[in-house]
Write a structure and sequence with these properties.
Blueprint: H1 30-33, H2 36-54, H3 57-64, H4 68-75, H5 78-93, H6 95-98, H7 108-125, H8 127-137, H9 142-167, H10 177-193, H11 195-200, H12 212-228, H13 232-241
Helix pairs in contact: 2-5, 2-8, 3-4, 7-9, 7-10, 7-12, 8-10
């Protein structure tokens, strides 16, 4: 959607013309008038698309129609804004994945199955987070330290514990939790974050919105079959179709 020209009068419902926007800085309370969710969403998407160094608070403020000085007052430095945007994104979209570790109503194996399916769904819905984690994972920075200490390491510890619980009751194909996480994030996640590549290959329909649930299920079932073997429902179908 193209933003309206701030210098061009806008037609009102009454037919009168609205006064053109005055030149100069935005109103002092303009930054407060922007919903925080919209601001953090735009900030996170910019960090994902242009990287931390390529994103400027001035450009964000311009896109939001507020003064970059007011944005600094509201959120502090660019580093503070990056932290707030990451925390918001994880809290907004990551909670259903982390919650699986607390599902005491499920046995460990079914907890892992649900976790992988939810993670694959999350990766499909959050390609920008995959872009951020990929960019930050390749360099040693304070941002990588932040992601690892607050989110990645706690997830790995929980996954380690879940693997140990499963291995205590049944065999699993040996794989480190970090390698398994890489397949989830940089494997499944990269696929959904790489629409231009799929278009270049002529298979863009594979990631069309209506096809995503099937893709998510295929990825999850394939990964789980690799470490656990076929799902119980698949084994039951095979037994039912086997000759007597």
């Amino acid at each position: 959607m193209t933003a309206a020209d701030p210098e061009k009068p806008v037609a009102l419902a009454s037919g009168r013309k609205a006064a053109p926007r005055p030149r100069g800085r935005p109103p002092a309370d303009a930054a407060r008038a922007v919903p925080e969710e919209r601001l953090l969403h735009l900030a996170f998407e910019s960090f994902a698309e242009f990287g931390y160094e390529g994103t400027t608070v001035r450009e964000l403020a311009k896109r939001l129609g507020v003064s970059h000085n007011l944005l600094n007052v509201r959120f502090g430095s660019k580093a503070d804004l990056w932290r707030r945007a990451v925390d918001w994104r994880v809290a907004r979209f990551g909670a259903p994945v982390f919650a699986v570790f607390e599902r005491t109503d499920l046995d460990p194996e079914n907890r892992l199955r649900l976790l992988v399916h939810r993670f694959c769904g999350w990766a499909a819905e959050n390609p920008s987070f995959i872009s951020v984690s990929h960019a930050e994972g390749r360099r040693t920075t304070w941002r990588l330290d932040y992601l690892v200490s607050l989110y990645i390491r706690p997830f790995k510890h929980s996954l380690d514990a879940l693997f140990a619980q499963i291995e205590a009751t049944r065999p699993m194909r040996p794989i480190s939790s970090s390698a398994f996480m890489a397949m989830l994030v940089q494997g499944v996640g990269f696929y959904f974050a790489s629409t231009p590549m799929l278009e270049a290959l002529g298979v863009a329909d594979e990631s069309a919105p209506e096809a995503i649930p099937q893709r998510v299920a295929e990825f999850a079932d394939t990964l789980l079959a690799g470490v656990l073997g076929p799902a119980p429902s698949v084994l039951e179908d095979r037994r039912a179709s086997a000759p007597a």
